[in-house]
Design brief:
The complex is a heterodimer of chains A (341) and B (510). Chain A is mainly alpha-helical and 341 residues long. Chain A contains 16 helices and no strands. Chain A is globular and about 60 Å long. Chain B is an alpha/beta fold. Chain B folds into 3 domains: 233 residues, Rossmann fold (3-Layer(aba) Sandwich), CATH 3.40.50.300; 162 residues, 3-Layer(aba) Sandwich (Rossmann fold), CATH 3.40.50.300; 77 residues, no CATH class. In chain B, the strands form 6 sheets. Chain B has a 6-stranded mixed β-sheet, with helices on both faces. Chain B has a 6-stranded mixed β-sheet with strand order 18-21-22-15-23-24. A 4-stranded antiparallel β-sheet of chain B has the order 2-1-4-5, with helices on one face. Chain B starts with 8 loop residues before the first strand and ends with a helix. Classes of the chains: A mainly alpha (341), B alpha/beta (510).
């Protein structure tokens, strides 16, 4: 129960603090909160957009949470999701004639594979060469961005537009969108993300490999002494994380754009770190945190024209304040002491 | 009697709570000036807590600390030091690359015009060292000095700060028997010069041989205080544990089989391993089934490296050459998991670092290493019902307290953590048991239990490789004794062939 209370309080505290800041900027915080709420949940369309932004955050939150359980910090979700989306679009652009359901199945497989490979590389480097995964995942983000630009602009360029995007995928690839959200592109990717969270939970808590992975994260020496191959677990953890990030491509390419657009991600990979942190690296927590951050992203979108002094960058401020208050452990023990006294 | 001289230290009704745990519950203690006073008790009995309050590390919730007839309230250890109290911690507080002299001055530098007056300090320290017979090489970096000398430096640190009351926390944990004897000779000299010495320990022999008075702690309370001459080890052990303890278990003679449980040949490890002074050179020995082979030695003479080389022979960081056989199989290039699956159980050297997931529940700790056995998983999916049933039964059989599978392993006491590991490893039905420091930091009651289990494993046909710094483990249990010194096997004895003193000399390399 207390485990649940702390993040909820932290969110409330972070929001209150963030709205307090808007007052310094000369706005009425209550008014700002109303805009946030209305913009995130005010209509079916708004709520749909919130869900649309949340979906990739579920994937990237899981992509950070799984390696974290093995004691690894995956900063590479951004690169992994870029390549996942690129691979999805590439399959669809190269073989546009494939029929449904073979086409999306193949494209999803491509998304997972690309992400997995991009996650396994830093895993392998860590296990075999001992080089730190934080450095390597960051560097692979840059390589992924470069690779995506090259493929998009030189190999699969859409000749019909000036925009940096690939040729459209075949019609057989498109996955269905839910009609009840007033046109917001909420696709089958959302239930897929929730399914992924359930599978991750089963993987972590009910399988031998999940147990071994968590053992490595808890105490590498003890895991090694127990005969667990710690190097293999390192590779698996980052590969699974990469695969999950790669699935972002499904919603974006098959469920929304129908092609790969350079720069489509408003840094989902990095927000995923915050999502995992707020969700305490638990699948259910990640889903809840992704919803919150999706709502923030959508909610702040209207601030630019609805207020005079506050822009949508407030969402970054709010995210930061929520993360700060979640991680302020000292604050919590202080509050506990106060309430005990 | 007690009213003749004012006490050097008196604790009255000292109470300390940590959350819901009562670490000290109305502790009363009187320490006469000019005596060596033993404070004994099991782990978690509250002896260290009481001494840390006396040294000002944390304040008592209730009760009084009276030093030299004055009631004292410490803000921090600095106040206690000013009142003439000093403490040598179990893990030394020394700055590795600094010289012995600088380590002593650190924090109490005699400064004039911003310059440290080393010469003056040195003169004074040399006088102190002469007076108490504590010679030290002042100019060597402290990390290059032997552990016994490092401890001398710690004591000189206190004397330099004019401590009248010296608290020593488990001072012999890292010493050879010879170094320990020398320490106690020095402590007696300090006592005769009028210092008061408080010795925290769980070793009954030290208390009996070197103290004047002794106070026994159990479960946060003082259960006995008496002159050492009026008690005996059995009584002290019973007071510590709260029931009758068998101090020296009776080990029946071994029925050794001809089958080899393990053998290593020409095992070597080149280069130094981080944190250790020694490597392995040309280590060869074997362990038969139904036999306990004890490896004696002072910490840091290659025992850790030997264990790593045996369990992870394929990793180049653990072994540069040599061969390892288990149960007749050449396992030199095997993975650790396959080696363990042969029926190799392992009580690791450092149970918290290598044996447990401290933040995870007892049940998961019980599973660690067994997760792929067919009893606990099928097709890669864990079988939690079997796990809970087996773990519940094992907690009962091995008396792991409290009987709660959900609490984190880190919340168990040291003895119960060790029993949990023993319970887990014996699930493997071991044909070879590697027991490293099986009784380190474990209380008398648990030592008796663990010793009995090791002997039973032997009698059921397992080969046992016992690695321990505690001579008591080695001498009680081993059918054969190997002595490790600087990465080599320096000597070998059969049971009963060697005295403690002789073994100590071999351990020191002579």
């Amino acid at each position: 129960m207390r485990k649940l209370l702390q993040p909820v309080l932290a969110v409330a505290f972070g929001l209150a603090l963030g709205l307090g800041v808007t007052r310094l900027a000369g706005e009425n915080p209550w008014h700002v909160l109303q805009i946030l709420w209305k913009s995130a949940f005010g209509s079916r369309y708004d709520f749909g957009m919130t869900l649309f932004y949340s979906t990739p955050l579920i994937f990237t939150g899981l992509a950070v949470a799984v390696p974290f359980q093995a004691g690894l910090f995956n900063i590479g979700a951004e690169g992994q999701l870029t390549l996942g989306a690129l691979a999805t679009a590439a399959v669809g652009a190269v073989w546009p004639g494939l029929p449904w359901p073979l086409a999306p199945a193949l494209a999803i497989l491509a998304a997972v594979t690309a992400g997995t490979v991009w996650g396994a590389i830093p895993g392998w480097l860590r296990a075999k060469r001992g080089s730190h995964e934080v450095i390597n995942t960051i560097m692979l983000n840059f390589i992924a961005a470069g690779l995506a630009s090259y493929v998009t602009l030189y190999l699969l360029k859409n000749p019909d537009t000036q925009n940096p995007e690939t040729r459209p995928i075949g019609a057989g690839y498109l996955i269905s969108q839910f009609g009840i959200f007033g046109g917001a592109p909420v696709s089958v990717a959302l239930p897929l993300a929730i399914l992924a969270a359930v599978l991750v939970w089963i993987f972590l808590w009910r399988t031998v490999i999940g147990f071994e992975m968590r053992a490595v994260g808890q105490n590498e020496s003890a895991a090694r002494a127990a005969g667990i191959n710690t190097g293999r677990m390192t590779i698996i953890a980052l590969a699974v994380g990469g695969g999950l990030a790669g699935l972002v491509g499904v919603g974006e390419v098959l469920g929304n754009a129908g092609k790969f657009r350079l720069g489509f991600s408003p840094e989902y990979g990095f927000i995923g770190i915050a999502v995992a942190l707020l969700g305490r690296n638990q699948p259910a927590g990640v889903v809840a945190a992704a919803l919150l951050f999706g709502a923030l992203h959508k909610g702040t979108a209207d601030l630019d024209f609805e207020t005079e002094h506050v822009t949508r960058e407030l969402s970054l401020v709010l995210q930061a304040l929520i993360i700060l208050s979640v991680s302020a452990d000292g604050l919590w023990s202080w509050m506990k002491k106060r309430s005990a006294a | 009697m007690a009213f003749e001289t004012p006490a050097a230290v008196e604790l009255r009704g000292l109470t300390k709570r940590f959350g819901s745990v009562i670490a000290n519950d109305g502790v009363n203690l009187r320490i006469q000036p000019g005596t060596i006073h033993g404070v004994i008790g099991e782990n978690g009995a509250g002896k260290s807590t009481a001494m840390k309050m006396l040294y000002g590390i944390f304040p008592p919730d209730a009760g009084e600390i009276i030093v030299n007839s004055k009631t004292c309230v410490w803000e921090s250890p600095a106040d206690a030091i000013a009142a003439g109290i000093g403490m040598v911690h179990q893990h030394f507080m020394l700055a590795g690359p600094y010289t012995a002299l600088d380590n002593i001055l650190l924090g109490a530098e005699p400064v004039r015009c911003g310059v440290i007056e080393r010469k003056k300090a040195r003169t004074r320290l040399e006088a102190l060292a002469r007076q108490y017979g504590l010679p030290v090489d002042w100019d060597s970096p402290i990390e290059e000095l032997p552990v016994g000398v490092q401890q001398r430096v710690e004591i000189l640190k206190l004397l330099y700060r004019d401590a009248k009351i010296l608290i020593l926390d488990e001072p012999t944990a890292v010493l050879t028997p010879q170094e320990a004897n020398e320490l106690f000779r020095n402590l007696k000299k300090l006592r005769d010069e009028g210092k008061t010495i408080i010795l925290i320990t769980h070793k009954l022999k030290e208390v009996m041989s070197f103290t004047d008075h002794v106070t026994v702690f159990r479960a946060g309370k003082v259960t006995g205080e008496m002159p050492t001459s009026q008690t005996n080890p059995q009584e002290l052990a019973n007071l510590m544990v709260g029931r009758k303890v068998v101090l020296n278990i009776n080990v029946p003679p071994a029925h050794t089989r001809d089958e080899l449980a393990m053998e290593v040949a020409a095992l070597s490890l080149a280069g130094t391993v981080a944190g250790s002074r020694h490597k392995l050179s040309d280590v060869s020995f074997s362990v038969k089934r139904g036999e306990i082979v004890g490896v004696a030695g002072v910490e840091g003479n290659g025992q850790s490296e030997l264990l790593q080389a045996i369990l992870h022979p394929r990793e180049p960081l653990c072994r540069t050459s040599g061969t390892v056989w288990f149960l007749g199989e050449d396992v030199t290039h095997w993975e650790a998991r396959d080696i363990r699956d042969l029926g190799v159980a392992m009580i690791p050297e450092d149970r918290q670092r290598e044996g447990l997931l401290l933040e995870r529940p007892v049940s998961e700790n019980f599973l660690l290493g067994l997760q792929r056995s067919s009893a606990f998983s099928q097709g890669g999916v864990l079988n939690s019902r079997n796990l809970l049933a087996a773990a519940t039964q094992a907690e009962e059989e091995y008396d792991v307290r409290p009987r709660d599978l959900a609490i984190p392993a880190g919340k168990l006491s040291g003895g119960n953590q060790q029993k949990l590991i023993v319970a887990r490893e014996f699930q493997r039905k071991p044909r070879l048991l590697i027991a490293a420091q099986p009784t380190r930091g474990v209380d008398v009651g648990a030592i008796e239990f663990i010793h009995n289990r090791i002997v039973r494993a032997r009698d059921e046909g397992a080969g046992v490789l016992l690695v321990s710094f505690e001579l008591e483990d080695i001498l009680t249990l081993s059918d054969r004794i190997l002595v490790m010194y600087e990465g080599r096997i320096a000597a070998e004895f059969a049971r009963g062939q060697v005295s403690e003193g002789e073994l100590g000399l071999k351990m020191a390399g002579s």
